[in-house]
Amino acid sequence: MSSFLFRRIGQAALVMVLVSAAAFLLFNYVGDPVNNLVGQEASFEDRQALRDRLGLNDPAPVQFVRFMGNALSADFGISYRMQRPVSELIAERLPATVELVIASALFSLLLGIPMGVYTAIHREGFISRVVLSVSLIGVSLPTFVIGIGLIYLFSVTLGWLPSFGRGETVSLGFWSTGFLTTAGLKAIILPAVTLGLFQMTFIQRLVRAEMIEVLGTDYIRTARAMGVPQGRIHYVYALKNTLLPVITVIGLKLGELVAFSIVTETVFQWPGLGLLFIQAVAFADIPIMAAYLVMVALVFVVINLAVDVLYVFIDPRLRTKAEDAK
Amino acid sequence: MTMRFITLVFVLMSVFGSTVLAENTVRWSAQGDAITLDPHAQNEGMTLATAKQIYEPLVHRDETMALQPGLALSWGLTADPTVWEFVLRQGVTFHDGRLFTADDVVFSFTRALMPTSDLKDIIGTVREAVAVDDFTVRITTEGPNPILPQQITDIYIMSRGWAEENNVTGPQDVASGEETYAVRHTNGTGPFILNLREPDVRTVLTKNPQWWGLQEDEPHNVDRIIFTPVSNAATRVAALLSGELDFVLDTPVQDLARIRRTPGLAVQSTPEVRAIFMGLDTGRVELRSSNIKGKNPFSDLRVRQAMNMAVDRNAIVQRIMRGVAEPAGMLLSPGIGGYTEEIDALPKLDPAAARALLADAGYAGGFSVTLDCTNDRYMNDEAICQAVVGMLARIGITVRLDAKTKVLHFPKIQNNESDFYLLGWGSGTMDSHYHLDFLAMPDRAWNRTGLHDPELFTMIDDIAIETDLVKRDEMINTAWLRLKAAEVYVPLHHQGLAWTMKDRLSLPIQPDNQPQFRLARVAE
């Protein structure tokens, strides 16, 4: 068991190093930050001098080793664009992204699961058909278009919800939250729906498919024959077994929410990590880009690692195989 | 426990949820935020536009870009043509209550000249600033500098005492790896005081009740300014339409018609001080991106004339810029000294004659070349380049378009790796010398035309130090005519600006795209 864990952790570390190296190679093509750091009057010599001081003229391997050395002590340097420490910026922006991800995860689960169950039970019903056709939109429309569409409907036309920003936030020490103010709660609705729509339709379709399969199994038929009430069959026996694979997939999809938040945050000017990253790209702000890529890779690696480990604990068959493999 | 938590939530909501807004609040937005609040660390539009509300220069510009007394009441050249004297305004205090004196001016100029300052090149001719008494300052330049007052309108005055106390006697150094106090804290003399700074999220300024300008006629009546950068243009426009914003600095030209039709909103436009043009590398023996080997088509004047005759500037202005630009025949925009309508006259649009000229030059079969272009710097830049590709194709020149982000495009120009490039040029000093120096002189990182005209170069050097203004204007005129005749550039248009705002807000549009809220009035 522990050898399996160590092997997994070793693989995860290797992935992290490879991701950092790949990110670093890319930085040779993102452009020259110095151009943004000095005015148009600056002379060629001044620019070269600044490149030297920033270490941009060093060979890529030297820059990489220096970066990895600093990254191990969580020092990502200072942002070229904002002229503030990257770790401080990330700590400042993290709450916005985490809250957005939580809100959209809740949205997609609380709507997706009941809708999936409903459409599985009432397969031919009118409402099911409507829900299924509408969910096609969620799957096929790009996030950007959904966001702008929602803004035009709910902000410009109806004037109900704000079109950008986080509204009012409350600072709880290191964490700034928008969940405690009306303005903050109103502000999170549109971005959360935009970000969660795809996941919601995905979960709904997944639950529906699993549920239909479960409803056809022998023990459900037996339950029916024994006269167990319909509601109990659907929501206790069937749903419980439906949710097992769904939970696994949701775990993996959480990482996707973080990744997709770049587009949503840009559309709604949501001051989270995605917006920070996209603005860094436009500025060739290498310290922020590097830190962000490493962080997202870390999120994915940790989630995958956790899922792998959980599998072993949940599924006894895997545990035996792992033992056998020794 | 649960009850207590819910009560806490409600208490917090009632405390933070309802914000009491000041009477006249202006909520505005632009694509990006100021990089820093340190007024000498970055020579960049939004950074200077933010500093402008908090700090003040010795000499202000009004909405027509004409000079106006700022912290200096008057100024003039002394008997020595290398020394300017500035008489300062008395009784001015910084936001923290310190009295403003000549010593602060000396300090600020010294600071703006330091190696880490990004403004040092604009005031590169300044040798030193010296306090004569508490309210008189003399600035000495290397050689006579007739336009010094024009060059110092972006040099903001900081308090020496405050800077020393907070260890910010020098501008922020990006390479130092640490943030200085002045990046997020300010202490100016200006009309607004920094109240809250959350970079990229929100910057709140409040009225400075002690500001000297409030004693003058028709002062501004803005109590609070809330700036929120919104990077997505569609969201910015939506927020203006929904009433969440009062003023948007950079509205896409394609949305202007809709905003004009919306009741309660207004559009203001003016030519920006920025010409958009293309540069041709004439100096090289052979173009890197051309199918013609052994010679450079651009080094033939007839080819350059043909290209200037093939570009339909009016079509670009009408179709792509939707009228928010003026077609250009010169690199200098109206409003800057040295601009004349004759030099700005458009080259005749005549594709047939252009083809004949190309044939004369030996390129009857045309040639190919790559045009380097930005896609995120100037208004509709990529679309402009696409249009130029089509127009040059009509006379047989096959242009491959390489449109990319500014962080890749500009280094290509500076490293001298482009044969044919798009560029825009504004002015920090509102004087012709700035343009001529950067765009005509050899070995300038922004001039990759390879222009070789020693007589013109001498003339430009002389313009820098000529103190007889009538004679200087004549020299400037001659220099522009000479540069135009060389046709190493293909001028396209003078970019326009369009500000959109609620019609109850009156804020004069500025050709440098930097709003001055000291000139704003909100209708009651």
Account of the protein in words:
The complex is a heterodimer of chains A (about 325) and B (about 525). Chain A has helices at about 1-25, 35, 45-55, 60-70, 85-120, 125-140, 145-155, 180-215, 220-225, 230-265, 275-285, 285-315, 315-325, and strands at about 170, 175. With about 325 residues, chain A is mainly α. Chain B folds into two domains: about 25-265 and about 505-520, Periplasmic binding protein-like II (D-Maltodextrin-Binding Protein, domain 2, 3-Layer(aba) Sandwich), CATH 3.40.190.10; about 270-495, Dipeptide-binding Protein, domain 3, CATH 3.10.105.10. Chain B has helices at about 1-15, 45-55, 100-110, 150, 160-165, 235-240, 255-260, 300-310, 315-320, 340-345, 350-360, 380-395, 405-415, 430-440, 455-465, 470-485; strands at about 25-30, 60, 65-70, 70-75, 85-90, 125-135, 135-140, 190-200, 200-205, 225, 245-250, 265-280, 325, 365-375, 395-405, 420-425, 490-500, 505, 520. In chain B, the strands form five sheets. In chain B, strands 1, 8, 9, 10, 11, 12, 13, 16 and 17 form a nine-stranded mixed sheet that branches. Chain B has a four-stranded antiparallel sheet with strand order 4-5-7-6, with helices on one face. Chain B is globular. Classes of the chains: A mainly alpha (about 325), B alpha+beta (about 525). The interface between A and B is large, with 57 and 58 residues.
Q: Mean of residue pLDDT of chain B?
A: 91
- Over all CA atoms, what is the radius of gyration of chain A? 24 Å
Question: Care to count the β-strands of chain A?
Answer: 2
Give the fraction of residues assigned to helices of chain B.
25-40%
The structure class of chain B reads alpha+beta
Total beta strands of chain B: 19
Question: What oligomeric state is this?
Answer: heterodimer
Can you tell me the overall shape of chain B? Answer: globular
Helix content bin of chain A = over 70%
Average pLDDT rating of chain A: 84
The CATH H-level superfamily of the largest domain in chain B is Periplasmic binding protein-like II
CATH architecture of the largest domain in chain B: 3-Layer(aba) Sandwich
- Profile the largest sheet of chain B: 9 strands, mixed
Low-confidence stretches of chain B: 8-22
Strand order, biggest sheet of chain A?
A: 1-2
What do we call the CATH topology of the largest domain in chain B?
D-Maltodextrin-Binding Protein, domain 2
Overall domain count of chain B: 2
